[in-house]
Amino acid sequence: MVRFTHPAQQIVLQDYIDAVADAEARAERLTGQIAELLPTWSLAPVVASLQAMRGVGFIVAVTVVAEVGDFQRFDNPRQLMAYLGLTPSEHSSGASVRRGEITKAGSGLARRALIEGAWSYRMQARVSPKLLARLETLPQSVRDIAWKGQLRMCQRYRHLVAAGKAKLVATTAIAREMAGFIWPIARATMPAKA
Fold it and tell me: How far is CA 105 from CA 108, 109, 135, in A?
């Protein structure tokens, strides 16, 4: 409905609108293809269980599981956090220890997906109708871990921001904690090795 005085401006605007519509259609088509293939994947139960967490929808869960693969290879959550590059770098000399930015090692796709999901923890802890629908078929142990994680991460985000941390730094810290809660959920639902 926007009209410009020069026809070239209108052409450029329409091109942008068409590009957005094409990208949305492509994303919807790819999501549908992934959803069709998911039931045949041995890690489908892990994908379903990770969606118990707030901020971890279908695409985030598939991305993290596809990038990490076997969660059993990590003995503790810190190893998973380090694998995803969500741990702070360290510069040490003698008794001096200085922590820097995150290492950004490992999968950039999984790290980005977790950081995007971590933004949802800015809000008060709650179970939305959409999240409730995802929780219905999951074991109680997975629900308990996800709820405990949500309570902790919502509180932690508020605490970090109140302490003066930049919102991006706080969100990255929450993404690191998300990886920590993803680890026990994934390990509890990993299929037994043959």
Answer: 8, 11, 32
Q: At 21, is the pLDDT very low, low, confident or very high (cuts 50, 70, 90)?
A: very high
Distances (CA, A) of 167 to 60, 113, 121, 152: 21, 17, 11, 17
Q: For residues 116 and 26, is the Cβ–Cβ distance under 8 A?
A: no
Q: Which of 94, 177, 160 has the alpha carbon at shortest distance from 122?
A: 160
Which spans in the chain are helix H? 7-37, 44-50, 58-68, 77-83, 108-118, 129-135, 140-162, 167-189
Tell me what pLDDT residue 194 has: 57
Model pLDDT, residue 93: 83
Structural domain spans, the chain? 1-40, 42-189
- pLDDT per residue as tens digits for the range 90-110: 888 888 888 888 888 888 999
End-to-end CA distance of the chain: 60
DSSP state of 95: T
Cα-based torsion angle of the residue sequence 129, 130, 133, 137 in order, rounded to the nearest 10 degrees: -130
Could you tell me which residues are beta bridge partners of residue 92? 97
